[in-house]
Write a structure and sequence with these properties.
heterodimer, A: 170 residues, alpha+beta, SH3 type barrels, 5-stranded antiparallel beta sheet, two-stranded antiparallel sheet, B: two-stranded antiparallel sheet, 16 helices
Amino acid sequence: MNYRILRRLGVGIIAFGACYASLLMATPAKVVRDSSLKEKPSFKATDVGQLAKNQDVEILQRQRGWYKISTQPTEQGWVTLLQVRFEASLSKSGSSDLSKFVSLRQGHSGVTATTGVRGIGEKDIKNAKANFVALERAKQFKVTPQDAQFFAKQAALRSQTITYKKKEGK
Amino acid sequence: MKSKFIYNSILCIGLSFLLGCGLKVGNLDVGKLASAGKGVLTGNKLSLKEQKVIGEQMTAIIVGSSKIHQNVELQRYVNRVGQWVAMHANPETEKGVNTEWQFIVIDTPDFNAFSMPGGYVVISSGVIDRLSSEAELAGVLAHEIVHVEQKHQVRAIEKSKTYSNVGDLAFLAADHYQTEKHGGYDQDSLKNRKIASNLFNATHNLYTKGIGREDELDADEKAVVLMARAGYDPYAYLSMMQIVESIDDNRKTLILATHPKAKDRIHVAFNAISHIENYVSGTKVVEQRFLRQVQ
């Protein structure tokens, strides 16, 4: 009995996980201009199809400056980042299923616990009271450069020396 | 000439007085601010120490407009990413004074990020909600770090009329001295309130009207370099900007008011990346760690 319940729960969790992963991966977007769909993320790659301006597509993954997209019915290929724009998202103003879905579309479940809360506007800054208690509390979260170095190493982030581009005429 | 000397002397005495007494108006430390205004009194640029004082007070105002996020792990995580990126910038240093980076997450659903002089960066949880990777988060933070590194706000403050008001702290301090001399010293005096209100005005102007198109695009251009220096995939900056572009306008009102159009910014960043293409191959996106932290 217990085993059955656990099994059902397990199947449910796996199904939810799969659904969640697909939501994370597929981002609705529109094609910005008539474009070629490439077989690989490279300008030299073979064309596998043509995309029309304003065509609906789904972004599946990013590789450097390229998105792998799928079109209806099942065509897949690569376009550059600048060839698509994400579909406008709705406000995340409440805790309805719709708003949760919308926020999942481009990110994750969200860390903003509050629901139905306004963001900061011009008036809020104008009428704000300086909060030094919060600022003092925030100082506890500071990390040392050594800590950051260890953190970077864990993700195999490697420093590089690159100069800023010089301003023209300077 | 002589009168100028006397006037300056009075200003200095006024400043020393305010600094010494730790005077507060409401919850702003006017004593500290008056001290920060000292550089302007002599016509100097703001020293780093002075920038830090002003930046601290401004950060307290920005934080005061919302509330700090309660998740300690999230705060630490954002500080780690931010600190690592900032270690690849070259902010101003002074003898015995360095920029100390402090990153703060506020709990608000809008997409907002602010940086204040001296190394303070505030980011909304609404930003984190919408991102998909650590590299995108690094991009948002890198943009703010560049503002501090390039002293964009400091220069905007120095140029603006409002800043001359903040700079007038010194003059107000002198006025305060005279008030004290003639009518006794009152912590809630109108003039001290004016010092506080000048800082509020400067903060309000900077963070609701912005610092100018050129500086914003400069921050976009340099942010992708900073990301690559820290080992993050600079192309994540573009996907982050595409997210900004797609957000409902009423969830990015301050960004709309203070930044060029996302479309223009994406093109500037894209061009900037084309100049560092040779450095992209070893960079990372870091999705899993980010998702573990924010779920």
